[in-house]
Design a protein that fits this description.
Length: 285
């Protein structure tokens, strides 16, 4: 049975829950299903022809299962991803490795489950982003609080780290990589790049050290957004941090046609560091 009395890592300066678009939310001390997924159809003339529900499904086990990301797949189905503390029951085929694990569910175009897989270490591991890759497999990203053990192959320097997992088309793990500094670093977004590698984005409280080449712009324990570029096997190529004098985090990143990157961020900083304009309120994007 899963140890549900472990550390609660579900809250941070930039809460994961604010990024979830198609799940229903209750108190995390109560059961939450992974998916409340609804398929809709409609026409361009939405006002005259409102969306019509086609189907809906829920997927979960006997405890907390949260969805954080999904994508339509090349076969017309969908890949769903989040994190789970449930045992092997319900829609979940494997027991947890630790307190919370990554959990992905593959469904067909009508929402029927085809397979599922979980990945984790000895503590909490929270998936926040995923993408189907050009080889038909998947790249999964999020944050790990685990040391070496289970599916986590590298030890932590300190606190939370970025953690990516590469799988084949059937969800079998091929490799994993973690990146972090000497404090907390939380991954929020990723994309496969044109060269077959990956670009990772999130936020970091760490000074320079370990995988992080630059200290934060702001005072101790404020966060900057931190991007990490890897090759096709998850080996780090370079990293950069950007920020101001307060908390700043990256929530979406895309490679552009000129081979650069565009980042969508949330900023609490004033005009300072890399931030060119003053804040309009408590936080800006």
């Amino acid at each position: 049975m899963n140890n549900r009395g472990g550390k609660n890592h579900t809250h941070s300066a930039f809460n994961i829950i604010t990024k979830i678009e198609i799940m229903f939310i209750t108190d995390l001390n109560r059961k939450v299903n992974l998916v409340c997924l609804i398929a809709l159809s409609g026409s361009i003339a939405f006002a005259q022809n409102p969306l019509v529900k086609q189907w809906d499904y829920r997927f979960g086990g006997d405890w907390v299962d949260n969805m954080a990301a999904f994508q339509e797949t090349a076969d017309g189905g969908y890949i769903l991803g989040g994190f789970s503390s449930s045992d092997a029951n319900g829609n979940k085929s494997q027991p947890p490795q630790g307190n919370v694990d990554y959990w992905i569910v593959k469904i067909d175009d009508l929402g029927i489950q085809q397979w599922d897989a979980r990945y984790g270490g000895t503590d909490a591991d929270q998936l926040t982003c995923l993408q189907q890759t050009t080889d038909g497999g998947y790249i999964l990203g999020g944050t790990t609080y685990s040391g070496i053990g289970g599916d986590v192959s590298q030890d932590s320097v300190a606190g939370a780290d970025y953690w990516i997992v590469k799988t084949d088309a059937n969800g079998t793990k091929l490799w994993d990589s973690r990146f972090g500094g000497t404090s907390d670093d939380e991954l929020r977004c990723l994309q496969q790049t044109a060269d077959g590698g990956y670009i990772l984005g999130g936020f970091s409280n760490s000074p320079a050290g370990a995988d992080k080449s630059q200290s934060n712009q702001g005072p101790y324990y404020t966060s900057d957004f931190w991007i990490v570029k890897t090759d096709s096997m998850g080996v780090k190529e370079w990293d950069k941090r950007f920020g101001g004098n307060d908390n700043d985090g990256c929530f979406s990143i895309k490679q552009t046609n000129d081979s650069g990157y565009i980042l969508a961020v949330l900023s609490l900083s004033e005009m300072n560091g890399h931030k060119k304009y003053p804040s309009n309120g408590a936080s800006d994007s």
